[in-house]
Every structure is written in C-alpha cells, then in structure tokens.
Amino acid sequence: MTAPAPRPHAHPFVPYTPPRLPSAEGLRRGQELFEHLDGRRSVRFFSSDPVPREAIELAVRTANTAPSGAHQQPWTFVAVADPDLKHRIRLAAEAEERAFYGREDIPQWHGALSRLETDANKEFLDVVPWIVVAFAQKYRVTGTGKQKHYYVNESVGIACGMFITALHTMGLATLTHTPNPMGFLTQLLERPSSERPYILFPVGYPADDCEVPELTRKPLAEALVWR
C-alpha cells in the first residue's frame, strides 16, 4: 500500500499514534473508570489530616492535560495552605453566603439547595489542609498588549473536571464551592484583573464521620439520546 502523501502545514505538527486497544479491553477500562467515578461525592465534612503538596501538583498537572480553545489553557490554580489566609477566605465567603441566604427574591434557588442542607456556615474552609481556587484568564498580557482568550468557560470547566477526577483518584475529596460574588478571592489571593475566580475547591480527606445527601444520578436514558 502506498504511504499517504505528507500533509502540508504552516506550523509544526508531530505524529500521534496512541495504541489501539482491543474493543473488549477498552470497554473493560471504561467500565472500571465509570465505577471509580460513580463513587465520587462532593463533601462538606473534612478531616484536618495533612495532604502532601505533591497531590495538589499532580491534580493540577492532570488539569493541564485538558483540551482548551485554541490551546490557550486559560486557567490558573492558586493553592492555599496558610491558616490565616484560609480563615480570611472563610470569613469573606461566609459574608457573601449570608447575603445570599438572606435574599427573599430567589425562593426557587433556595429550594433547589434545600435537600443539600447547605447554609452560610463554611467551617470546612478552616478545617481542610488546602484551598485551591481556579481562576479563569479572560486575556493575557504580552509584549504587544492584551491577547484575548476564547472559549474560556468551556476550557476552564473541562480542566476543573479533570482536577476533580485526579483528586478522587488519589483518595481525596472536594467541593465545587462558588460563593457569589467571588471578587474577594481576586483581592485576597492577589490575582491580576485579567483573571476572575471560577471555583473554590476545599481539598482534603473526608472526615471519619462524613455524611453526604442521599442522591441519585440522572439515568442514562435521560442523559443520552441516539439518532
């Protein structure tokens, strides 16, 4: 068989030839991954036991493998272990949460959260060994000025999902905490105006007496449509 002619490129390309798995082995790995991730839960009751810095590094390395629009990788992860800074983050988050739970114009939003039994108390932000905040980069500054980033929400969302997957794989737990607004994180963590807070992740091991709401996940028939 004649080899295909090389494709013309204006920029560098390299071969990509991952091993092709037998179908049965691919399905086995897929089932194993599903069962592993199906055991993941968001946690609000954490242990204060230490988590090695290397675990955070590995989780962010994993996030960095995410696809992103135009390969701009528009994210920054800020890891916080300092107790004083964690406490200041807690106080600021609780102030925003008290305002949110005190609003009378969003009863449906409050109702949607009621079965999770959440409130303005964010004690876990003092307990966890790490707080990791994902920031979305709206643009970056180069020698020629601002370079706009594209598909920022999509890109950062995928990276955060892979970050969560890595944490779960290492036996760690987290929560996608999004106090609204989150501008206080930009100030406390000294981030530039080109970035905006995206998700606050408390990271640690579940407490020995950890509990989670009894929930069921959407069945496949509701998540998948064949055409």
What's the structural domain tally? Answer: 1
Percent in helix: 25-40%
Portion in strands: 5-15%
Give the name of the CATH superfamily. NADH Oxidase
Main sheet attributes: strand count, strand direction, barrel closure: 4 strands, antiparallel
Low-confidence stretches are none
Helix and strand composition category: alpha+beta
Mean pLDDT: 96
Number of helices: 8
Termini Cα gap: 36 Å
Shape: globular
Which sequence of strands runs across the widest sheet?
A: 1-2-6-5
Could you state the order of secondary-structure elements as H and E?
HHEHHHEEEHEHEH
CATH fold group = NADH Oxidase
Radius of gyration: 21 Å
Question: How many DSSP-defined strands?
Answer: 6
Per CATH, the class reads Alpha Beta
- CATH architectural name: 3-Layer(aba) Sandwich
Topology:
Layout: H1 23-38, H2 53-63, E1 75-80, H3 83-101, H4 107-113, H5 124-127, E2 130-137, E3 139-142, E4 145-148, H6 152-169, E5 173-174, H7 183-188, E6 195-204, H8 220-223
InterPro entries: Nitroreductase, Nitroreductase-like, Nitroreductase/BluB
Domain Nitroreductase: 38-205
Region (Disordered): 1-22
